[in-house]
Structure formats: structure tokens, C-alpha cells
Specification:
Layout lengths: L4 H16 L7 H23 L5 H24 L5 H25 L8 H11 L1 H7 L4 H25 L10 H5 L2
Helix pairs in contact: 1-2, 1-3, 2-3, 4-7, 5-7
């Protein structure tokens, strides 16, 4: 049973993230679910690594949970006109880099997958903190989105680099040492 707990947590995050789509604005219940999504994202991977039960399925569930959580946030930010068009376009282009990396993985290793990379994790934290950043900058989304877009771009380049340089299928890069030893 223990080996399934990280995937159960990831699945719960996916369900919570889907519920986030039903909110029209950032309310207390939205924030509570959003915080659950962020904390569960942190916990599932930690437990999987600690218990040595990481898997491609777990990585996939984690990625789906992340994408759904942040798409729900973006939906609200866009519907309230809090994100400039240039930031949306830049972010989409940066995320396309992750798709390119997954295609490279398919060509090189026979499997289409996403890497949980160092800058990807930094991007996750940055995105998770976006609502707080918006409050601290008095809804100055240009500042917040500039930071997010730069980190997203670094994440995209990092995943492409990993897929081009790695000698084996890697799903988790946790340090600069590991990244630069490829």
C-alpha cells in the first residue's frame, strides 16, 4: 500500500485542480484548494523518492496535477485581466520547449515523457507564489510575469539540454551537480 500513497496524493491534486476551474475569482475556498495543490505537489515527490517508489506513472500524474493547477490559476488571472498578452505568448512559447524536450525523449529513448528538472521545480515554486507576488506588487503583473517567463524559458532550455545530453532516460534532476555532470 505504501508504494501507492504518492500516486494517490497526486491523483487527489488532479481532482482538486479540476475543482479550481469552477471558481470565477480568487476566494478563500480557491486559495485553500490551491494551497492543498501546492503542498501535495511537494509531498508526493518527496515521499516517492524517500520510499524509492518513483515511477513514470508518478511523474506523469505529478505533471498533470501541476499543469491543471496552474491552468486553473491562469484561467482566473486572464478572466480578471491580470495577465498581459505578451506574458501569455512568452509563457506558451517557453512551455513549447518542454514539449520539444519530450519529443526528443521519444526519439532518443522511445518514450514521450517530461522531466522534473531543477528549473522546472523553481518554476513550480514561482508559479505557486504568483498570487502572493501579485499582492506584494499591488497586482503589477508585468513584474511577476517577467520573472515567471524568464524562469519558464530557463526551464525549457534545461529540459532540452538534458534530453540532448543524457545517456539514459532521466525523469528527475534534483541538483546543479547532477545537471552539469551529463
Amino acid at each position: 500500500m505504501k508504494k501507492h500513497i504518492p500516486n494517490i496524493i497526486s491523483t487527489a491534486r488532479i481532482i482538486a485542480a479540476v475543482v479550481l476551474f469552477f471558481f470565477a475569482e480568487i476566494t478563500f475556498p480557491f486559495v485553500a484548494l490551491y494551497i492543498f495543490c501546492g503542498l501535495s505537489d511537494f509531498v508526493d515527490g518527496k515521499l516517492a523518492r524517500k520510499w524509492e517508489v518513483t515511477s513514470v506513472l508518478g511523474a506523469y500524474l505529478d505533471t498533470v496535477g501541476d499543469v491543471l493547477t496552474y491552468l486553473a490559476l491562469v484561467k482566473i488571472l486572464i478572466s480578471q485581466n491580470l495577465v498581459p498578452l505578451w506574458a501569455i505568448i512568452w509563457y506558451i512559447v517557453a512551455m513549447a520547449g518542454n514539449l520539444i524536450a519530450a519529443v526528443i525523449a521519444k526519439k532518443r529513448f522511445g518514450e514521450f515523457y517530461f522531466i522534473h528538472s531543477l528549473f522546472g521545480k523553481i518554476l513550480g515554486v514561482t508559479l505557486f507564489l504568483l498570487p502572493l507576488g501579485m499582492r506584494l506588487t499591488h497586482n503589477n503583473s508585468a513584474v511577476c510575469m517577467s520573472v515567471i517567463c524568464v524562469v519558464a524559458t530557463l526551464s525549457a532550455f534545461e529540459t532540452i539540454y538534458i534530453q540532448l545530453k543524457s545517456k539514459e532516460m532521466l525523469t528527475d534532476i534534483t541538483s546543479f551537480k547532477q545537471l552539469f555532470s551529463l
